Amino acid sequence: MSLDENQPRASGAVALRIAIVPGVTPGKWTRRWQERHPDIPCEIVRIDDANGRAVLDSGRATASFLRLPVDRDGLSVIRLYSEVPVLVVSRDSILSSRESLTSAEIAELPGVVSYPPEGSVKDAVALVAAGVGALALPHSVARLHARKDVVAIPVTDSTETEVAICWLADETTNVIEEFVGIVRGRTAASSRSVVPPVKRGKRRGR
To answer: Which residues contact 117 (CB under 8 A, 6 or more apart)?
Structure first.
């Protein structure tokens, strides 16, 4: 289930509510959670990058996938992976055939907008497609808003974006620890599991 960030504070019926910023795809982790713990609901809250911490402080999310840096005071933070930065340009741009760019080259370009842009990313990409400027994005966000009339070019020497899972340290529960364990690759056989995993029937003929 997917919710909006403006939903009211999580009720007691929802044990796990996960916030995600644009470009993060938690499907493999939520599927594993549902397989192991079908009786413990898991909901997804889609948020903007600026609200990664706010949804935790307000109680609207149990944990949040967000981009660093973030105010770490009172947070448990586990870095998960890095994203290559890209520059999105119009397919008609003279840069569209380039395999990569450097930060120095981008600094010389007019009209480059950094992430996050004012307004929606979708609208910003539409402007680029129309030939207005260029847009610097994390790779996953560029992929989310991919269009046939724009090209995303990797920036080879720019700082990569770091994605982490965070939660309020004082509100660490067995459920949170179990979900974080799944994200980090803990197997269903782990003795630290919150509840026993769902048992699968044996296949015949073996």
So the answer is: 124, 135
Q: How far apart, in whole angstroms, are the C-alpha atoms of residue 15 and residue 84?
A: 33
Residues found in the chain = 206
Convert the chain into a string of H (helix), E (strand) and C (coil): CEEECCCCCCCCCCCEEEEECCCCCCHHHHHHHHHHCCCCCEEEEECCHHHCCHHHHCCCCCEEEEECCCCCCCEEEEEEEEECEEEEEECCCCCCCCCCECHHHHHCCCCEECCCCCCCHHHHHHHHHCCCCEEEEEHHHHHHCCCCCEEEEEECCCCCEEEEEEEEHHHCCHHHHHHHHHHCCCCCCCCCCCCCCCCCCCCCCC
Q: What is the pLDDT of residues 6-55, one digit of tens each?
A: 444 444 445 799 999 999 999 999 999 999 999 999 999 999 999 999 99
Global pTM value: 0.82
